[in-house]
Design goal:
Helix content is about 45%, strand content about 5%. By secondary structure, the chain is mainly α. Helix 7 links the parallel strand 2 and strand 3. Helix 1 packs antiparallel against helix 2. The longest helix is centred in the N-terminal third of the chain and has 16 residues.
């Protein structure tokens, strides 16, 4: 997440929003001026299950049965890659999905984390358009501001990354802040401490509330 000093127009931290870097407004976006090459492949892992679903038909599925199985797995991949090991351990640990079904006894006796994230993906798939997901993901892979685009940013910027974020790790915010300052801009970085992964930038941004308020008051 980042804040740019001007009028307020926040957006979320999930896929599709981290390309909305502000130029004259104040936006809350994914921190950094580019996507990391490692995350380009993570995003590829998000979309691949949809493309492997026979019902996707190269994107020509409208008016037909939708590729819900592929979308469900894609959303399952998104969930686990936007979280972090600490979150998984605290939330699920080694609990079984069914107390009477030991995962060691049968291949399809899942752990609680598998069952929960899988069912969530299936539920969300019913309201997610496959092609929209794929094109948004592609746009995210292409996110990389040029020097001229960075120079065009007139606002002051406060980057607020999450310490355990594997999609936008704090290093990207720090690198972007250094790059912006080298071009004459003003930038600060305030890191959200936690083990919730990328989604700490949505659910735990209040941890840096004082830093955000101080920045907006300048």
């Amino acid at each position: 997440m980042s804040f740019c000093k001007c009028s307020v127009a926040p957006v979320g931290a999930g896929p599709g929003n981290f390309g909305d870097l502000c130029f004259q407004r104040q936006d809350a976006v994914g921190p950094g001026f580019d996507i990391h090459p490692y995350v380009i492949e993570i995003i590829n892992m998000w979309t691949t299950p949809i493309m492997l679903d026979a019902r996707w038909k190269g994107g020509d599925y409208y008016g037909r049965e939708e590729p819900l199985d592929g979308v469900a797995v894609a959303l399952e991949n998104v969930t686990i890659t936007t979280r972090a090991p600490g979150w998984a351990e605290k939330t699920f640990g080694y609990k079984w999905a069914d107390a009477a079904k030991n995962p060691a006894d049968a291949m399809f006796n899942p752990f609680a984390i598998e069952d929960t994230i899988g069912k969530a993906g299936q539920a969300r798939a019913k309201t997610t358009d496959a092609n929209s997901f794929i094109y948004t993901s592609k746009a995210n892979q292409l996110y990389r501001l040029t020097d001229d685009e960075v120079k065009g940013i007139k606002a002051k910027i406060l980057f607020v990354p999450a310490s355990s974020d594997g999609i936008f790790p704090p290093e990207l915010s720090q690198r972007a802040a250094a790059r912006f300052k080298a071009q004459g801009g003003t930038a600060e970085v305030a890191i959200i401490d936690g083990d919730g992964g990328h989604l700490d930038g949505v659910f735990n941004v209040a941890k840096q509330g004082e830093a955000i308020r101080a920045f907006l008051a300048k």
